[in-house]
Design a protein that fits this description.
The protein is mainly β and about 110 residues long. The chain is built from no helices and ten strands.
Length: about 110
């Protein structure tokens, strides 16, 4: 069974950068459409960014121009580079594939 494991969260100051990773088990990572979601305290989970198997990307308006989603199929790993972080980016960040598998999340806290 496929597993997704996020890492890279932590405490960062506003204006700073952080890179999240999502490591996938299994050998068919390259065919997945991969997505990052986030859930802020007391709020619903929201979509952040998606990357297709062909490398096409889409972003939520709230992160466009600041976040970059990418993938390394040779390493079975998805990334989210987050720049110019804001306190409102504080959330648990999750990765998900198009077969409905979710990771357990990694917490990013942005201090003002």
């Amino acid at each position: 069974q496929v597993q997704l494991v996020e890492s890279g969260g932590g405490l960062v100051q506003a204006g700073g950068s952080q890179r999240l990773s999502c490591a996938a088990s299994g050998s068919i990572f390259s065919i997945y459409i991969m997505t990052w979601y986030r859930q802020a305290p007391g709020k619903q989970r929201e979509w952040v960014a998606t990357i297709t198997s062909g490398g096409s990307v889409n972003y939520a308006d709230s992160v466009k121009g600041r976040f970059t989603i990418s993938r390394d199929d040779a390493k079975n790993t998805l990334y989210l580079q987050m720049n110019s972080l804001k306190p409102e980016d504080t959330a648990v960040y999750y990765c998900k594939n198009n077969f409905g598998t979710w990771g357990k999340g990694t917490l990013v806290t942005v201090s003002s």
